[in-house]
Amino acid sequence: MNFFFRHRLTGLPVLALLITAAGCSSADDSARAAVPSPGTKVAELCRNLDKVLPAKVDGQGRRDPEPASALTAGWGNAAIILRCGVERPAKMSDPEADGVEVDGVGWLLEKQSDGSFRFTTTLRKAYVEVSIPKDRTGDGMAPLVDLAPAIKKAIPEGIAD
Question: Which long-range contacts (CB under 8 A, 24 or more apart) does 58-66 make?
Fold first, then answer.
């Protein structure tokens, strides 16, 4: 295994209601992730992936981001976020791009400006992106190791359409 390491309202009572509602919102502490919009074939693969994703990744329990979707998943408070059906990253055309293979799944590795990492599957019928926050990057490839069996089961090898 290699390690390299998304009605108009006025008045004071309304403002008080909005502040109270915001304070009670369950979305306040939830991670957010943009939901991809893939074609029908890829969306079906992604729904299949969602059914086989592990309950824990890198020791973190599943905690999906908002808005809820079968195309996104998350684990832990410093959310490890998975998005299935993303567009092919432009960086994949760069012959100097960093890549890694983890338990039979190839990944494009992109370090982000905030110190986090984004990994995107390569040579699969759907692009699956996994974002790992910088406070979890010390764990190396552990999240990818945990996700590899599900990806191999649900997303066939090949080139995404």
Answer: 58/136, 58/139, 58/142, 58/143, 58/146, 59/142, 63/30, 63/31, 65/6, 65/30, 65/31, 65/32, 65/33, 66/27, 66/30, 66/31, 66/32, 66/33
Tokens of 101: 């293979």
Q: What letter would DSSP give residue 89?
A: P
Residues of the chain with pLDDT under 70: 1-29, 136-140
Tokens at 5, concatenated: 């390491």
Those residues whose C-beta lies under 8 Å from the C-beta of residue 64, and which sit 6 or more positions away, are: 72, 73, 74
Query: How many angstroms separate the CA atoms of 51 and 43, rounded?
Result: 13
The gap between the terminal CA atoms of the chain, to the nearest Å, is 28
Distance between alpha carbon 114 and the CA centroid of its chain, in Å?
17
How far is Cα of residue 124 from the mean position of the Cα atoms in its chain?
16
Cα separation, 74 vs 97, whole angstroms: 26
Question: What pLDDT, in 10s, does the model give residues 103-117?
Answer: 999 999 999 999 999
For residues 49 and 154, give the distance between their C-alpha atoms in angstroms, rounded to a whole number: 5
| pLDDT tens digit sequence for 22-44 | 333 344 567 899 999 999 999 99
